[in-house]
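cache lookup: miss for this entity combination. No prior model stored, computing from scratch. Input as submitted by user K.M.:
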Amino acid sequence: MHIAEGILSAPVLMAGAAAGAAGVGIGLHRLDDRSLVKVAVLSSAFFVASLIKVPLGPVSVHLILNGLTGLLLGWAVFPAVAVALLLQALLFGFGGLTTLGVNTVIMGLPGLASYYLFHRIAARSQGPVAFMAGFMAGAFAIALGGLLLAATLMSTGEAFWNIAGVALGAHVPIMLVEGCVTGSAVVFLNKVRPGTLCANVAPPILEAQPGAEPAA
Amino acid sequence: MDDHNLFTDAPPEAAGPVHRLDPRARIVLAFAASFSLVAFRDLPVLSAAVVLGSALCAVARTPFAVVFNRLLGLNLFMATLFVLLPIGAPGRPLLMIGQIPYSADALLQAGCIALRGNAIVLVLTALIGGMEPVTFGHAMQHLRVPAKLVQLFLFTVRYIAVLDQEQRQLRTALRVRAFEPGMNLHTLRTYGNLVGMLLVRALDRSERIHAAMRCRAFHGVFFSRHEFGLGRADAAAGAAGLVAIAALAWMQWA
């Protein structure tokens, strides 16, 4: 889920870069030494997980998992996504430098939204409820990502409206895939390592800080 | 760790003239070049930019397979753009598909986008495509990128290969149990569990890493064996880049 180089106009790219930089800045600001290492290793895990291919009809899609990343990382989803995108550009040539900001927002913002909407219930439930919370977080993050992507394309010109439509439609099956994978991952985490989701690494300002830090 | 490299499609970089430049200069040039290319919007200018990009790849001795791979991914997408963008778009119709116009203007726009995208990817591939991520991280550090971001980047780079190993292990375990991915709920749930396990292992590992870093009194700065130094070659490369951009700008606006 990213926009290729060469499409977007300079103002859209600049706005994306500014918004992405703000997100990354806030995310980084909330990390201390310990959580920084945690976020880094989790970003590696998400990078690796995003290489998993799921068969879908005649093609296969790769996992994105921005919803699950958001649930685990909170605001730190922005730096995690930015680093992953930079590495993809560097290692595989997917995406590039000009679209780094826009794509960080397209993937990171839905993750953060999923965090605010579904983190509480996902962290405190078991079984089917946890699955549903995870499913919603995963599916919602993809849906919102698709909408942001479509909106970005449409802002470039009227000619892009049908491309935006096709891109949005392509996100529907991915929503289901991501929802199921995220739901099972949440159930798994709550069963195998309860509290993983409670101790999120970059707590939002409004939440009480004590208790967010796990005992040493 | 197999350092070069589980992930990249690029083999170790050929010792070409681009390789010998200061990594900081390469990164700054890559940023400057790709953002300048965004501004150009005429077919001849963008064609010239693609030619310059290809020339840069040739100078950098980027292996053909790498360039081809990267352009292939981009152009599969660009192909859909050529089909979809002009359908029903405003502007002079080139032909009519039933009642729906296939717009000539939008086709031209698609052409410009494709050329611009290709030019940017060519320049990026030549300038930073073969750069080691670790080198990139250290260069960022020297370019005054915030220390936390550099740390995050370098730690992530370091542990991608390790976690990929974990992931392979888990998948081998699945294969041993005759797991066959298909389009069904079982596959999705299994992958969900796999991701969950990967995250649990990552969290455990991060605790060990943090403890180890504390033992070694890590205070947030990585040391690099690389000695960065800007030389005459970097100045020449910068000047060449400037001339190329200026020539394109002259084509566009003069």
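stored under new cache key. Chain B has two domains: 23-131+228-253, 146-215.
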